[in-house]
Design brief:
The protein is α/β, with parallel strands linked by helices. It has 2 domains: 299 residues, Glycoside hydrolase/deacetylase (TIM Barrel, Alpha-Beta Barrel); 82 residues, Sandwich (Immunoglobulin-like), CATH 2.60.40. Helices cover 27% and strands 29% of the residues. The strands form 4 sheets. Strands 2, 3, 4, 7, 8, 9, 10, 11 and 12 form a 9-stranded mixed beta sheet that branches. Strands 1-15-20-19-18 form a 5-stranded mixed beta sheet. The model has no long low-confidence stretch (mean pLDDT 95).
C-alpha cells in the first residue's frame, strides 16, 4: 500500500499518552501560618511545626505527587527568610528549608508567591509599604515587577531552593497580566537562567477542558512564559474552622464523579490546588489527612491514565509542542519524520495516522522498543500500533531529530 503522508497526519500527544495531573500548594512559609498574619481579625495558630512539614513530604513521596509548592521570600512582611525570622528559632527555620530543599523540591516546583502575600514590600528600603500585594496592579509597572520578582527569586535561589516560576496572591495583577507575565519571564531568566517560565494566577472550575496557555513565545530563542490553571476551588479551606474537607467534589469514593473525573473523561489536564493553612487546619492536620484520601482515589481510579508533572515540566511540554516543526518524507518503503525544535522535551509523544505496516521505528540511531497491544503503557523510547495509526515516545532534543519508520 502506497499511502500519501503529510504533516496533517501528525498529531502531538501528551507525554506517554497520559493526561498530566498537578497539585498546587499556596502560601507556605518557614514554620509560620500565614493566616495568623493575613487574617488577623480571626484566631489562627501562628506556628507550623516541622513535624507537619515532614508529614507533608512523606505524603507526596508516597504517592509521587508533582506540582508546585510556594515559599514566601518575605512572609507577611516580617522579614526575609534568608535571615532569621522574628520569633522563629533559627534551627527550626533551617530545618524547614532543609525539608523543602531535600524532600519537597525533587517532587514539586518551588516558586515565589510575590514576596509577602500581605503588605507590598519596598525592595529598596526593605520594609512593608502602605498597600497590599493583592492591590499591586495600579502601583506597578513592568520594570518594577521584574525587579520585585527577581528580588524574591534570588532569595530562594541563594537558599538552594531552585525556583522556576511564580504565583499571584489572590488575583493580583490579573488586570495587567500581559505586563505581569513578561516580568515573570524576564525575572526567571535573569535569576534562574531558565528560558521557560510559568505562573499560577487563574482558577477555572467550570470549563469541561482546562489547559495551560502560552502567554509569550520566542520560537527562535526557545523562550516562553506559560500560565497553568487550576480547575478546582480549595476543597479544604474550611478545615481551618473545624469543618471537614469537601474532597468528594474532586473525586468520589467510587471514582465515578467529581471535578477530576469530569476532566479525565474529557481528556483535559487535571490541575487542582489548596493552601498550606488548609492542609495544616490549625494544627489538626485535617486537610492533609483528607488529601491522603483524595490521592488514594486518584491512584485507584485514574491510575496509569494520568502522569504527575511539575508545573515547569508541563510548561516545557506545551512550549515544545508550539515550536516543534515536522516534515514527513516518503523514502521508498520507509517514512522519514524530521523534527526540529528550539526547545528540548523528554518523552515527546507523536501519533502518525497511517495504514502502512511498520516493523521498526528509529529515533536517530536508536531503535525504539515495540510494544504489543493497544492497552500497553507507552514508556520512554517505545512505540506501538493502534487502529489506523502508530504512536511513539522519544526524547526531543533542541535541534533536529530524524525518525525512520520502516
Amino acid at each position: 500500500m502506497n499511502q500519501s503522508i503529510s504533516t496533517t497526519d501528525i498529531r502531538f500527544e501528551w507525554p506517554r499518552l497520559r493526561l498530566p495531573i498537578f497539585f498546587i500548594v499556596d502560601d507556605p512559609a518557614p514554620c509560620l501560618n500565614l493566616a495568623h498574619f493575613e487574617q488577623y481579625w480571626e484566631p489562627h495558630v501562628r506556628d507550623v511545626p516541622n513535624t507537619f512539614t515532614a508529614a507533608w513530604a512523606d505524603l507526596i513521596e508516597e504517592f509521587g505527587v508533582r506540582g508546585k509548592f510556594s515559599v514566601l521570600p518575605v512572609p507577611a512582611g516580617i522579614g526575609r527568610i534568608d535571615r532569621t525570622l522574628p520569633d522563629v528559632k533559627p534551627a527550626d527555620q533551617e530545618e524547614f528549608l532543609r525539608i523543602v530543599r531535600e524532600r519537597v523540591s525533587p517532587q514539586m516546583d518551588i516558586c515565589i508567591e510575590f514576596l509577602t502575600h500581605f503588605l507590598a514590600w519596598d525592595i529598596q528600603c526593605e520594609r512593608p509599604g502602605d498597600y497590599t500585594e493583592k492591590e499591586m496592579g495600579p502601583h506597578t509597572n513592568r520594570n518594577h515587577l521584574t525587579e520585585y520578582f527577581a528580588y524574591g527569586l534570588r532569595i530562594l535561589h541563594d537558599l538552594g531552593l531552585q525556583p522556576t516560576g511564580a504565583t499571584s496572591p489572590g488575583a493580583s495583577c490579573r488586570d495587567i497580566e500581559w505586563t505581569y507575565q513578561a516580568a515573570i519571564r524576564d525575572a526567571v531568566k535573569e535569576v534562574c537562567g531558565l528560558p521557560i517560565a510559568w505562573y499560577f494566577l487563574h482558577v477555572d472550575d467550570r470549563s469541561p477542558v482546562v489547559l495551560p496557555r502560552i502567554m509569550s513565545l520566542d520560537k527562535e530563542r526557545g523562550e516562553a512564559c506559560v500560565t497553568v490553571v487550576s480547575a478546582t476551588d480549595d476543597p479544604s479551606w474550611r478545615t481551618q474552622f473545624g469543618e471537614p474537607s469537601q474532597f468528594d467534589i474532586l473525586i468520589t469514593e467510587d471514582g465515578q464523579a467529581g471535578r477530576l473525573v469530569e476532566l479525565y473523561r474529557n481528556g483535559s489536564v487535571l490541575g487542582f490546588h489548596t493552601h498550606w493553612q488548609s492542609l495544616f487546619s490549625e494544627g489538626r492536620g485535617t486537610g492533609l489527612a483528607d488529601l491522603r484520601i483524595t490521592l488514594g482515589r486518584i491512584r485507584e481510579h485514574l491510575g496509569a491514565g494520568v502522569q504527575w508533572v511539575k508545573c515547569s515540566e508541563l510548561a516545557r511540554v506545551v512550549a515544545a509542542q508550539a515550536v516543534a516543526q515536522v516534515q514527513v518524507t516518503e523514502r521508498g518503503d520507509a517514512l522519514e519524520v524530521r523534527l526540529t525544535s528550539t526547545i528540548a522535551c523528554p518523552d515527546f509523544t507523536i501519533r502518525l495516522r497511517t495504514e502502512r505496516p511498520i516493523r521498526e521505528v528509529r529515533a536517530g540511531n536508536v531503535s525504539l522498543r515495540r510494544l504489543t497491544g493497544i492497552n500497553s503503557s507507552l514508556e520512554s523510547s517505545t512505540w506501538r500500533e493502534e487502529p489506523g495509526s502508530i504512536v511513539w515516545c522519544a526524547d526531543l532534543p533542541s535541534g533536529e531529530l530524524i525518525l525512520t519508520l520502516s
